[in-house]
Specification:
This protein is mainly alpha-helical. The protein has three helices and two strands; from the N terminus they run αββαα. Helices cover 92% and strands 2% of the residues. Helix 1 crosses helix 2 and helix 2 packs antiparallel against helix 3.
């Protein structure tokens, strides 16, 4: 192949150095030298073509082998990929089933815990309501009894003071100055009796108000206890919902 390129280079040099024909683009070249170079090129080309054909045949053989090998590798890789996909799908199905079973179990436990807390909260609320009602009735009864006692004492004191004033007024009715003094004293006694009765009624009202205030504090404590129970119930329910998700 080297001789072909060499002969072509020499042929090119001859053409470039040839004497030109006036008034034309042609030139005068030595015929013998050109024909000799052409014969050299003809002699060199067949051997080079055989070598090139051998290279092409070897390339085709390598391509066939490579294609067959790549086909075998693709088939093997496809089979392995299918096996891996089947294994992965089976593993995913197993994990999904395990996760579903775990989720169902947690939901069941959460539902049971919630129902138990609701039942306990209802029982506690009922107990507190019963206790509050009983305490309210007891406090109201005590307050009413104390109020009745104070009112009764006030009425008795008032009637006693009035009777004493009347008696004292009748005893002194015959004397003008004494009568006036007695009248003033009776008036004072009557006013004092009224004041005592008002005081007793005020004390009764204060006592009843204090008892009602104590009952109000008790009821507020009960409401706060119920509120805490409801808050704990909602918190527990929210925790189980989050765990289930």
């Amino acid at each position: 192949m080297y001789r072909v390129f060499e002969a072509l280079d020499e042929l090119g040099a001859i053409v470039e150095e040839a004497r030109g024909v006036p008034m034309t683009a042609g030139c005068v070249v030595p015929r013998g030298d050109v024909l000799e170079l052409i014969d050299d090129i003809k002699d060199a080309i067949p051997g080079e073509l055989d070598d090139a054909q051998d290279v092409l045949d070897a390339r085709d053989s390598l391509l066939r082998e490579a294609k067959e090998h790549s086909g075998s590798m693709v088939s093997s890789a496809t089979a392995e990929a299918d096996s891996l996909v089947d294994h992965a799908r089976q593993e995913a199905d197993r994990l999904l089933a395990d996760a579903k079973s775990q989720a169902d179990r947690m939901v069941g436990e959460a539902r049971q815990h919630t129902e138990r807390m609701v039942a306990e909260a209802r029982e506690e609320s009922s107990r507190l309501a019963t206790t509050a009602k009983r305490e309210y009735e007891a406090s109201t009864g005590r307050a009413k009894n104390e109020a009745d006692r104070l009112i009764e004492n006030g009425n008795l004191a008032y009637e006693k003071a009035v009777q004493e004033g009347i008696k004292e007024q009748q005893r002194l009715v015959s004397q003008t100055e004494i009568v006036q003094t007695a009248t003033m004293e009776a008036t004072r006694l009557i006013d004092s009796a009224h004041a005592e009765a008002d005081r007793l009624r005020g004390e009764c009202d204060i006592y009843v108000d204090s008892k009602l205030a104590e009952f109000e504090d008790f009821l507020n404590g009960t409401i706060r206890s119920v509120g805490r129970g409801r808050h704990q119930l909602r918190t527990a329910a929210g925790t189980h919902d989050y765990a289930a998700r």
